[in-house]
Amino acid sequence: MNILKWLNKTIKILSCVDNPKYEAEFLLTYVSGYNRSFIITSDRVELSQKQYQYLNYLVYRRSLGEPIAYIIGEKEFWSLSLRVSYDTLIPRPDTEILVEQVLFKIINNKSTLILDLGTGCGAIALALAKSCVNCYVIGVDKSKKALDIARINALQLKIKNVSFLFSNWFSHINKKFDIIVSNPPYISKKEITLLKKDIFFEPFDALISDKNGLSDIENIIQQAKKYLFIGGWLLIEHGWQQKIQVQSLFKKYNFFEIESYQDYGGNDRVTIGRHLINKN
Ligand SMILES: C[S@@+](CC[C@H](N)C(=O)[O-])C[C@H]1O[C@@H](n2cnc3c(N)ncnc32)[C@H](O)[C@@H]1O
Q1: Which of 30, 66, 141, 222 could disulfide-pair with 61, CB 3.0 to 4.6 Å?
Q2: Its Gene Ontology biological processes (predicted)?
Q3: From the candidate CATH numbers 3.10.129.10, 1.25.40.390, 1.10.8.10, 1.10.287.130, the one assigned to the domain spanning 3-64
Q4: In degrees, to the nearest 5, what angle opens at C-alpha 194 toward C-alphas 141 and 245?
Q5: Is the CB of 91 under 6 A from ligand 1?
Q6: Which atom of ligand 1 is nearest to the CA of 219?
Q7: For residues 74 and 85, what is the distance between their CA atoms, to the nearest angstrom?
Q8: Going by CA atoms, what residue is nearest to atom 4 of ligand 1?
Q9: How far does the centroid of ligand 1 lie from the alpha carbon of residue 51, in Å?
């Protein structure tokens, strides 16, 4: 079968996804190694039997809703190509807002010790470590399999000012940090049923939290001051409807300079607060 015929057939099969043409072309470039302009200008080129069979297998997986990132085992975040697996959440572009806040509002090239709670494939920790050579970042997770992926990513990207360790939130942390960041699970059990089916391929432990999605966020905010130097910052990613509740939790646990920031889609996404006085 030639490229044109395969594309036309695949675009129909993938009509259930948001952008079938883009995804069909993406899978074709991934399997064939041809770039997009070659695909467009040379669409009469025949696919080999091996390419054809492998492509159809990947398209079948995609048609069942499996995210492209799991199919190819990779996702770009902060211009870093990161390995992902079924044990890690797929990093989202919205999370780059949190990285931007740390780098441009708080650090300003100062030497800084950062803790990333719930690091998954290491996206936030690696983006911060790569962008700030004066920083040292520790990423923790309760999923040992996710930590293995994060360590592979650090090795492949040759990022040395980062390390990853097991911890159930703060359970294995015994020092203080300048900055604590987290993109914790924050989706409620009720809300998850309303989301796109792609999400059911991701680890539930990375997504769902009790108390309307706020249980892990509260747990982190409540404990964070013990692990922050005076003047240190806590930054938390949350759901677009959780800003008011998250700001209240920052106030309840005596954080100052509380502010929230929106993602690229204009949704409230990250709330930050500062530890200024030693009062619980
Ligand atoms: C929403 S994912 C975020 C992953 C990654 N930081 C990112 O932004 O792509 C939440 C992560 O928190 C981890 N996690 C959930 N509960 C945890 C706990 N009690 N202690 C440590 N990590 C936890 C999950 O395994 C998952 O990797």
Answers
A1: 66
A2: methylation
A3: 1.10.8.10
A4: 60
A5: yes
A6: 19
A7: 8
A8: 120
A9: 36
Question: Using CA atoms, how far apart are residues 243 and 94, in angstroms rounded to an integer?
Answer: 15
**Mean pLDDT of all residues in 46-64:** 95
% pLDDT > 70, the chain:
98
86, 87, 92, 141: residue to mutate for ligand 1 pocket, most atoms within 8 A of CB: 141
Q: Which ligand 1 atom is nearest residue 92's CA?
A: 9
**Interface pTM, i.e. ipTM:** 0.99
CATH domain 89-274 topology: Rossmann fold (3.40.50)
Q: How far apart are CA 243 and CA 70, in angstroms?
A: 30
List the domain boundaries for the chain. 3-64, 89-274
pLDDT value for 44: 85
Model pLDDT, residue 278: 63
pLDDT by residue (tens digit) across 89-130? 999 999 999 999 999 888 866 779 999 999 999 999 999 999
